[in-house]
Amino acid sequence: MKGEDQRPIKVLIAESDQVLADLYRTALEPNGWDVEVVHDGGSALSRIQRSPPDVLMVNGLPDIDAFTLVERVRANPSTHRLVIIVLLDSVSNLDVKRVRKLDVQAWLSKTRTTREELSTTIGRLVGQLVTGQNRDKA
Which of 52, 76, 114, 126 is the most buried (most CB within 10 A)? Predict the structure, then answer.
């Protein structure tokens, strides 16, 4: 699937665990998406400012938690409309309440979400991005 300008959809994965990041990349690249991985919050913020992706997948990072990273992205006028998926280590009531306040398009359990579910969720959100539909929560 390609964006409105027919370039590949750009997905930035911000994940500190190299093995998980590689699994996510392997699940997403067959869709024709341009997938990049960063392993810390500073690199994620720098990459987003330099060339904003279409989709940001984020988990806790060594130098910043996912919630703070999302808050910073949403506070910036040039990136506040970015499609964001938060990967939660646990789906506790506290985490879900906190993530709902962040205006993210989806949150997924890192331990319960299959590669197929991840790919399907991103595909649905990218489809909404391309067609200009309203952003919905997963």
Answer: 126
- Is 30 in contact with 6 (CB distance < 8 Å)? no
**CATH classification code of 10-131:** 3.40.50.2300
CB-count exposure of residue 57 (10 Å: 0-12, 13-18, 19+): buried
pLDDT, position 81: 85
User: Which position has the token pair 């205006």?
Assistant: 103
56 touches 105 (CB < 8 A): no
pLDDT tens string 13-35: 999 999 999 999 999 999 999 99
Rounded Cα distance, 31 and 123, in Å: 8
3-state helix, strand, coil in the chain (%, to 5): 45, 20, 40
